[in-house]
Please model this.
Amino acid sequence: MVWLALESHPLIVPKKHIANIFELPDQLTSSVMRITKRISIATKAALRADGITITQTNGAAVGQSVFHYHVHVYPRWYDDRRLATDHASTTNTLAAI
Model:
């Protein structure tokens, strides 16, 4: 897992280079989703989020700009507030998760 400090959300990235979902091996697909579920549950609980948005894009035509398969896990709240992105806040958020 990677924490995107400037965007305030976790990112699940396989170690093996895979450009997109079309190249993702079946055995890795289930592992990525298990990890995504675990990170989503932990993020929601630790940050007291009202919900989680999970995104993943495939191909330049739909906005993929990093051509290494990855899954974004965005914590969301009813009032749609954003997390602070300063170093201290990021460190505290990571510790909570």
About this structure: The two ends are 11 Å apart (CA to CA). The mean pLDDT is 83.
